[in-house]
Amino acid sequence: MDELRRRFIQGFFILIALVYICRLFYLQVIDETYKLDAENNAIRKIIQVPFRGLVYDRNKKLIVSNTVVYDLYITPKKAKVADTLRFCNIFGITRQTFDSLTHLAKVFSPVRPSLFLRQLSREDFARVQDAMVDYPGFEFQVSALRTYDSKAMANALGYVGEISPERLAKQEETGDDYYRQGDYIGVTGLERYYEEDLRGERGIKYMMVNSRGVEKGPFKGGAFDKNPISGKNLISSVDINLQAYADSLMQHKVGSIVAIEPSSGEVLAMVSAPTYDPSLLSGRTFSKYFQTLNLNPLHPLLNRPPSAYYRPGSTFKIIQALVALQMGVISPGTGFGHGGSPIRCSHNHPVASDVQKAIQYSCNPYFYQTYKRMIYNNTEKNIFKKSALGLQRWDDMVAKFGIGQSLGIDLPNEKKGKLPNVEYYNNMYHGELTWKFSNIASNSIGEGEIIVNPLKMANVAAIIANRGWYIRPHLVKGIDKVGEIDPKYKEKISVGIDRRHFATVIDGMVAAVNNGTVSGDGRMSDIQMCGKTGTSQNRHGENHSIFIAFAPKENPKIAIAVFVENAGSGGAHAAPIASLCIEKYIKGHVDRKAIETKWMNKSYPNLLTIRKANAAAKPKTVSKPDTAQKVDEELFLTTPTVTLPLGVSAQKNTVKIPMSPKKPVNQKVTTPKKGTH
Ligand SMILES: [Zn+2]
Question: In terms of CB atoms within 10 Å, which of 42, 118, 124, 318 comes out highest?
Answer without folding.
Answer: 318
